Amino acid sequence: TLFAELAATRGVVLHEDATDQLSALDVPGSGRIVVVVGPEGGISPEELDVLAAAARLGAIDLFATLPQESRIALSRTAQEHIFSAGEGIVRQGDRGNSLYIVLGGRVRVVLEPSGQEVAVTEAGGFFGEMSLLTGEPRTATVRAIGDVRVLEITADRFREVALERPGLIEHVSSVVVERREELADARATAA
User: Fold this and answer.
1) What is the pLDDT of residues 18-42, one digit of tens each?
2) Which residues contact 31 (CB under 8 A, 6 or more apart)?
């Protein structure tokens, strides 16, 4: 059916069940959620998008330990964006209040004004964590390499989830420390 095709393009598997209830189940290790739909159908395309985003979050190390309910709640407020090759996603020096997760494609992290590459982040990676945690301006510019899909999570929503899972902040903080060192090395090399 068209609905099943729509689900498949979003990384979600539909399964017909004899009950009138809708339930979503993780498929361990796959990053997928199986949606069990009763005979009435009962799931909107918007809800399917939320479940697909939650499944993608489950496949990313940073969010893999979150319970399904938390990933679904987070996905309800996250926004998916698509960027074309060379398009800027965040700009060094701008105020930042969100974290971005690369869902598809790759992004290049560069220092301005030299344009020196600091890193390339692929699907499953994330950026924007430094500004999210510290409130400081963005420390680098991030541009799309080819077409890129990202999921944007606001600082307020991230904090809510982090309160449920203190280990999440510890993990992101350790990444911040590593990336600050990489930035310092890149700046030293550029000078």
Assistant:
1) 344 445 555 545 555 556 555 555 5
2) 11, 55, 56, 58, 59, 60
The H or E element containing residue 102 is strand 98-111
Cα 129 to Cα 33, 37, 86, 96, distances in angstroms? 26, 36, 21, 9
More confidently predicted of 170 and 102: 102
- CA 68 – CA 22 distance, rounded (Å): 15
pLDDT tens per residue, range 58-108: 888 778 778 888 888 888 889 989 999 999 999 999 999 999 999 889 999
| Residue 134 backbone class (left: φ over 0; alpha: ψ -120 to 50; beta: rest) | alpha
Q: Assess contact for 43 and 64: CB atoms under 8 A.
A: no
Give the whole-angstrom CA distance, residue 128 versus residue 115: 18
Report pTM: 0.74
* The Cα angle at residue 155 between residues 154 and 157, in degrees rounded to 5: 70
The amino acid at residue 106 is R
Range in 29-33, 50-54, 72-76, 127-131 the model is least confident about: 29-33
Among positive and negative, which fits the CA dihedral 164, 166, 169, 171? negative
Handedness of CA 34, 67, 157, 59 (dihedral sign): negative
